Amino acid sequence: MADYTHLRLERPVEGVAVLTLDNPYMRNAMSDEMTASWVCAIDELAADTSVRAVVVTGAGSAFCSGGNTSWISSEPEASVDYLRNRMMPFYRAWLSIRKLEVPTIAAVNGHAIGAGLCLAMACDLRYAATGAKLGVPFVKLGMHSGMAGTYLLPNLVGPAMARDLLLTGRVVEADEALRIGLVSRVIAAESFDEEVLSVAGGIAANAPIATRLTKIALADGGHADFESALQWEALAQPITLATEDLQEGIAASRDKRTPVFEGR
Questions:
Q1: Residue 28: left (phi > 0), alpha (psi -120 to 50), or beta?
Q2: pLDDT recorded at residue 171
Q3: 74: pLDDT confidence band, cut at 50, 70 and 90?
Q4: Which pLDDT belongs to residue 75?
Q5: Contacts of 14 (CB under 8 A, 6+ apart)
Q6: Are the beta carbons of 198 and 13 closer than 8 angstroms?
Q7: Residue 182 contacts by C-beta under 8 Å, 6 or more apart in sequence?
Q8: Is the entire prediction scored with pTM above 0.85?
Q9: Does the pLDDT at position 153 exceed 80?
Q10: Which H or E run contains 181?
Q11: What is the rounded distance in angstroms from the CA atom of residue 167 to the CA atom of residue 117?
């Protein structure tokens, strides 16, 4: 396992990998070093068939304060084309977590702001600790939203609430984030890491082929229409019925024991 700058990759539970943004003195802002580390870590996880769930969290009091504003404002004379060619690789680097076929969980332990919230929204699940704050205040800095914020946010909270958050730039607390659907659960800060890891462990213990196909089915808001869902399920469900894991799951249910899924 490689050593990463401003990022930690750990495997605390079987089948679970934890990526910790580790630049707490900068509130885990996305430094160039962190970005390069992130790309390498995602590639490592994508190639590791033992990984069945990935948790993303932040060191210290913040999840991620977003992009490094010092370089964003450092080239006032740069052309639009130059800046576009700089931003696009940055977007793609951080959004590369979407290529993982296993479920991903954003453990929002503190503030998730701007691109930091976009990273959380790129994960499959979001859990927030009490006291966390979330927002996309790009307009308050004089800039347009980036890193797919105008796509990811409406997909999660609906177009009306997305307009509210993007046009006002206001930051919401964890309880409101739960109410509008931006996060799935709010967990007490003192037990946050333990509970998120427990959820990740539970996901990792599920049948990996069925889990992977379910993630694919739900991607980007799910199927285009009812018939598309039926057509997909009529193929995906038989794939899982033909696995050894299905036989193990049925046998374990019958024997009242915990199944052991091998991904076959």
A1: left
A2: 98
A3: low
A4: 74
A5: 201, 204
A6: no
A7: 121, 126, 134, 156, 157, 172
A8: yes
A9: yes
A10: none
A11: 16
For residues 10 and 17, give the distance between their C-alpha atoms in angstroms, rounded to a whole number: 6
**7-46 pLDDT per residue, tens:** 999 999 999 999 999 999 999 999 999 999 999 999 999 9
| Distance of alpha carbon 202 from alpha carbon 12, whole angstroms | 13
Look at the alpha carbons of 115, 46, 212, 52 in this order and tell me if their dihedral is positive or negative.
negative
pLDDT of residue 24: 94
DSSP secondary structure of 101-165: SS-EEEEE-SEEETHHHHHHHTSSEEEEETT-EEE--GGGGT----TTHHHHHHHHH-HHHHHHH
DSSP string for 253-264: HHHTS-------
pLDDT (0 to 100) of residue 73: 65
Q: Give kind and range of the element (H or E) at residue 57.
A: strand 53-58
Cβ atoms of 114 and 63 within 8 Å: the answer is no
Q: Is the pLDDT of residue 243 over 90?
A: yes
CA distances from 127 to 12, 130, 156, 167, 222 (A): 18, 10, 14, 24, 21
The amino acid sitting at 174 is A
Query: Any bridge partners for residue 57, and if so which?
Result: 20
CA distance 43 to 62: 25
The two counts, helices (H) then strands (E), for the chain are 11, 10
Q: Decide the pairing of beta strands 125-129 and 185-187.
A: parallel
The residue type found at 207 is A
pLDDT of residue 83: 84
Q: What is the rounded distance in angstroms from the CA atom of residue 99 to the CA atom of residue 121?
A: 14
First to last CA, the chain: 26
